[in-house]
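Key result, reporting period 2: structure in, sequence out.
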């Protein structure tokens, strides 16, 4: 969750939504994102809305404390119940992200999940995920999460090479993420993801192959692999600007992506989104698919974003301001926007084109259709799905996904 917040109109103090946003809500899936904004240290590439103890000292008082955080987030879940009314929907997915959610006690994460269950109810087959830092969990911690209702865990591995982890300022040791997969399986987790990053300055093709091999050897059923994006204002951006480490170029990113596709496909993984692979339909991250398909989700926590029925809003960034608003009985919302039909059409193209199922051609206007025909002839879209009325990226198209999307939207 990037730290910068957009502009928008004010959010009502009680968080109320327009009636149009709640119309036919029972027909739409509902998910919850629970943001935990704490980290032990700040990674050099990170631009997320997270805080270390040093960064919070003296800026939020007791309200920003990790010790009180679970209760504060529970208060927002209860606010969500009031705002969404007597909607009979059960929650389909819950995703606890950060930050490092596992800096909180396992019982705190279970308590936060319990609030969603108590206020809304969970679907019988609900997907319940937490992100985890490999160094912040052990078998007992994972067992508590599993017993408390979590059934999916995503470990931040990033790389198997120590020198790459050092550039990223990651604090875990090589080998620990793989051990975590075994511990999660032993605790009874149905689905385990490993998050990887490629294109770190100083990383070689062989380093990336070693990372993929280590990840696959651990036995997850889901792998996410993202190209490193150097965000302005981060420590890594400053180091690159000073010439301390080189910037990785787009050609290197493309080569690493092809290596990932080759290794993952050979191991029985299929892509279902440009940066995500799973061994089965059940292994796909349903929560992220809610985002990609424009469903409803409530994001609880500092800086968290929500979307319900074409209304998008976001919370204040700082944990102290967030907790203060809830303590005063106010919505922590900082701003919102009501999406037009055109906004939603464009967003569907932007997001659905990245999926294995692609986007329906009926979303495209005349110029977009012309661009899609050019993309087809250039080998960027698959012929079979196109004939059936869908724009689906080829492997080459996945390498150029952002450019293809821009052309189709225009």
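The corresponding designed sequence is given below.
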């Amino acid at each position: 969750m990037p730290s910068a917040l957009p502009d928008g109109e004010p959010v009502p103090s009680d968080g109320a939504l327009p009636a149009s946003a709640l119309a036919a809500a029972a027909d739409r899936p509902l998910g919850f994102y629970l943001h935990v904004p704490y980290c032990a240290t700040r990674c050099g590439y990170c631009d997320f809305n997270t805080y270390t103890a040093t960064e919070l000292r003296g800026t939020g008082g007791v309200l920003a404390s990790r010790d009180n955080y679970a209760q504060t987030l529970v208060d927002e879940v209860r606010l969500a119940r009031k705002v969404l009314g007597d909607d009979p929907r059960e929650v389909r997915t819950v995703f606890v992200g950060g930050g490092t959610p596992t800096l909180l006690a396992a019982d705190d994460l279970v308590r936060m999940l319990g609030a969603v269950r108590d206020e809304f109810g969970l679907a019988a087959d609900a997907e319940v995920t937490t992100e985890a830092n490999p160094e912040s969990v052990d078998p007992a911690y994972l067992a508590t999460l599993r017993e408390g209702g979590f059934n999916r865990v995503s470990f931040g591995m990033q790389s198997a090479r120590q020198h790459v982890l050092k550039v990223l300022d990651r604090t875990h040791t090589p080998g620990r993420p793989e051990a975590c997969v075994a511990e999660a399986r032993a605790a009874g987790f149905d689905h385990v993801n490993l998050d990887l990053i490629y294109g770190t300055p100083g990383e070689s093709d062989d380093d990336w192959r070693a990372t993929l091999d280590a990840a696959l050897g651990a036995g997850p059923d889901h792998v996410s692999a993202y190209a490193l994006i150097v965000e302005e204002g981060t420590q890594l951006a400053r180091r690159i600007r000073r010439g301390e480490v080189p910037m990785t170029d787009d050609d290197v990113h493309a080569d690493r992506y092809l290596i990932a596709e080759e290794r993952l496909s050979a191991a029985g993984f299929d892509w279902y989104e440009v940066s995500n692979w799973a061994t089965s339909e059940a292994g796909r991250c349903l929560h992220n698919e809610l985002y990609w398909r424009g469903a409803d989700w409530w994001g609880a926590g500092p800086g968290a974003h929500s979307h319900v029925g074409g209304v998008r809003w976001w919370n204040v960034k700082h944990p102290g301001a967030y907790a203060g608003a809830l303590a005063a009985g106010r919505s922590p919302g900082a701003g919102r926007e009501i999406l037009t039909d055109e906004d939603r059409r464009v967003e569907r193209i932007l997001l659905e084109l990245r999926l294995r199922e692609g986007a329906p051609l009926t979303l495209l206007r005349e110029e977009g259709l012309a661009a899609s025909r050019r993309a087809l002839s250039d080998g960027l879209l698959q012929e079979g799905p196109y004939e059936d009325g869908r724009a689906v990226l080829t492997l080459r198209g996945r390498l150029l996904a952002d450019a293809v999307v821009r052309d189709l939207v225009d």
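The chain has 17 helices and 14 strands. The longest strand covers residues 122-132. This case is discussed further under Risks and Mitigation.
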